[in-house]
Specification:
Elements: H1 13-37, H2 48-59, E1 82-89, E2 92-97, E3 106-117, E4 120-131
Antiparallel strand pairs: 1-2, 1-4, 3-4
Length: about 130
């Protein structure tokens, strides 16, 4: 006697729900243990990501997504911090801000479109270095 193929690979709903619940609990336990193992974010770290956001906003006029090199500036930096901004597009680069010291500094960067001429936009990278 052969069994009906309609009954193959079927799972009862209660054991399936228990298996899904067990999997969810295992993932939650892993996440909470992982969060406890990682070191906390350094409260005193230089705010490079925030300065990068501010510089990007200031260099893109009228809500445009294209960075204008002539609008590049350090902008507002939290008290006690210095910053350098560098914009690179192809073989061209622009810099604004203080000269970076040899000490430790926090860096953040992102790819951005850069207007290199009035009608030419090239891919580039905006980098911010922040230190105390």
């Amino acid at each position: 006697m052969s069994r009906s193929s309609a009954r193959r690979a079927q799972v009862e709903p209660v054991p399936a729900a228990v298996a899904v619940l067990a999997l969810c609990l295992a993932i939650a336990a892993y996440g909470s243990v992982r969060a406890g193992v990682l070191p906390p974010a350094d409260e005193g770290a230089a705010p490079a990501a925030q300065v990068l956001d501010d510089v990007d906003d200031a260099a893109t006029p009228n809500g445009s997504l294209v960075v204008e090199p002539d609008r590049l500036s350090v902008g507002p930096v939290p008290a006690g911090y210095e910053a350098t901004v560098r914009l690179e597009a192809g073989d061209r680069s622009w810099t604004a801000g203080a000269t970076q010291p040899a000490a430790e500094a926090s860096t953040a960067s992102r790819p951005v479109p850069v207007r290199v001429e009035s009608s030419a936009v090239r891919p580039g990278r905006l980098t911010v270095v922040v230190w105390q």
